[in-house]
Amino acid sequence: MTLACNPFPPSKIAGTAPEPGYDVEILRAAFATRNITLITPFYPWKRAYFLARTGQVDGLCSCSYLPEREKDFLFSDLLGHVRVAVYATQQEILDSVNTVEDARNMTVGVVNGYSLEATARDAGLDIIMANSEATLVNLLLSRRLDAVLSFKSPIDYLIKHGSNTMPDISSLKTKIIANNPYYSCITKNIDGSEELMAQFNLGLQTIRNNGLYENVLAKYGTSPETDTISPDKNQ
What whole-number distance in Å separates Cα of residue 1 and Cα of residue 20? Predict the structure, then answer.
C-alpha cells in the first residue's frame, strides 16, 4: 500500500537519507507485521492531502484530527504527539502569548493546510500562509511576520541544520503552547479501507508490545515520555 508523506523532520525526512524519520519507520514496521509492504512517497502537504483525499494513494503517513476530515478519512489509533509552539525574534512577543488567542493583535504565519491553519482562523488571528516551515522562518527573520505558529519538530530541525542558509535562525525564540495528538490516516475513497486500518492498528499494537516502537523513537533521540502525554483528540 502507499501512504503519502509530507516532509516533517525528524518524524518524516524526505530524500535519500538512511534514516527516513521515526514515523516512517514505525509505519513500515507496523504494516510489516501484517505482511504488508508500505511505500512512502513524499509530497508537499497540500499535494499529499489531495492525493489521499481523492484516493490516488491509500492515505497519509500522519495527520491531525479535524471533524471535517472524517468525511474522507479513517483515523488510526494514536501514533504520537507533536508539540505546538510559537516562534518569534523578540522575547517580549513570546512573553505575551500563552494561548493561540493571545496572538490576535499580531501577524502570524502558518503552513497552508495544516490543522493549525484552522486553529488560527478559529482564534481570529491575522494569518499569512506559506507552503513550508522554511518559508515561514524566512518571513519571520525578515520581519514580515510578528510570530510563527508551528509544530515544533520541523522548525527545531531547521534551526539545527539550517544555519548555513539562514545565519540568523539560531536567534529565534520559542514557546510551547500545546501538545497535540496525531494519527495515521487511510482514505475512505478506496476499497477495503476499513480492513487496511484494522490491520495497521493490529500492527501498531504489536510493535508497541514488543518494544520496537520505543526503539525506533530512541534511534532518533526521542521517547514516548518526551513526545507523548495522554491520548486525546485534536499537518
Answer: 17
Q: Measure CA 91 to chain center.
A: 25
- Phi then psi for residue 198, to 5 deg, are -60, -40
Q: pLDDT by residue (tens digit) across 68-98?
A: 999 999 999 999 999 999 999 999 999 999 9
Residue 68 region by backbone torsions, left for phi larger than 0, else alpha for psi between -120 and 50, else beta: alpha
User: Mean pLDDT over residues 216-230, rounded?
Assistant: 66
SS3 (DSSP) at 227: helix
**Cell reading at 213:** 516502537
Residue 181, beta-bridge partner list: 81
Q: What gap in Å lies between CA 12 and CA 16, rounded to an integer?
A: 12
d(CA 24, CA 11): 7
Residues 36 and 193: their CA atoms lie apart, in Å, by 14
Question: Which grid coordinates are listed for 9?
Answer: 523532520
- 87: which strand partners? 148, 174
Average pLDDT, the chain: 91
Question: Which tens digits make up the pLDDT trace of 35-72?
Answer: 999 999 999 999 999 999 999 999 999 999 999 999 99
- DSSP H helices in the chain: 22-32, 45-53, 91-95, 115-122, 133-141, 152-161, 193-209, 212-219, 224-227
Q: What is the pTM of this model?
A: 0.84
Residues 185, 60: contact at Cβ < 8 Å? yes
